[in-house]
Request: fold
Amino acid sequence: MDLLLRRDFEAAALVRAHPPVIDDPHKRMCFELAGGAEVSGRIDVTRWRATTPDAPRGTTVDDSGALEVLAEPTPFAYDDTPGVWHVNFADPALFFGYGTALLAQDELQCLEHPAIGSLREALHAVGHARTADREGATPVLVAGLERRCELDTLPAPGRPHGLYGNEFADAPAATVRAALRLVKPPTRSNLIAMAAPAYGQGTYRRAQLDAIFATAYTGFAAAVVETQRLWPGAPTEVRTGFWGCGAFGGNRTVMVALQLIAARRAGVSRVRFYTVRPDGLADFERGTAAAAQPIDALLATLERERWGTSNGT
Reply:
């Protein structure tokens, strides 16, 4: 696992030097209400070249150590406990949609952590605003981001279809404002930005499964490394969900199973998996059951799984 970049930024200086470019009026409103220009603290950034560990064949996937797995039938919840990392369901172009009308999981994290736009601009200027390049995946970890607001995207009176995805751009400004809660004082979040493969068809190929595993393993292993660097002795917790199963059309069973075995291999202590709604628990359980098989059987199982379709977000 090769380290491609390590940088740290003073947040206020970062925003002054690289002001965010926010074209969408709803997002400009949220940025201003959250005091996005008033961010503080240090932001640590690393970028890593994807790799995989040796995988002994015919063994169970939990042979490298214990992993606590918790399922939460809710949207993502954030925690600024040292060693807790939140997966960003990234595009290969890191945080590219932060200032647009898009509002999938990636862009929602950008809205709630307003320094991300400036971080995107700074990394783009030096050619490192990528979570993948021609050679493969390059997950990016960001530690210390202020979370200054929370946008409730779930359906509620006045927004019967919620605010997620395309509903955000179509909503009146007053509806968006009513759904926004300021986080006072701001908390701090740590993100693992990694892009899943997009828009496959038919059954999964072994090369696709290998790429997914390598990406998740590298992002999670980097989180373990960075946890020990920033908070020595703290356990590493990864918070994730159906990564790559929205706009990219991934299969939930595949993406759950490969994330779990990647976390075990990487030495993560706990995975907290958010299914958004209770009806997602069945998909999570199918992925968990698949991940309990020996590796050879697991790969054979996943090669029979089929790609889904994009949800248009």
Remarks:
- DSSP finds ten helices and ten strands in the chain.
